[in-house]
Amino acid sequence: MATTESSQVFANPDGTFTQETNAAPVRAQKDDGTWAPIDTTLVHDADGSVRAKNTTPALTFRAAAAGPGWPR
Asked: Who wins on pLDDT, 70 or 55?
């Protein structure tokens, strides 16, 4: 089976192939190489950052350092 963010190809028992295609990403590849459904739930990491559980592209929010003129 060939998999991308928005499509999958399946081998059928009769030797043919079926491709399932979506207009937008429905899965994202995790760090271990496996694919999982898109999950935009926000989680806190040990370093204090916040990220979505499983999205494409990966997106992480980090706190800004406080300093002169903060907040703006």
From this structure: 55
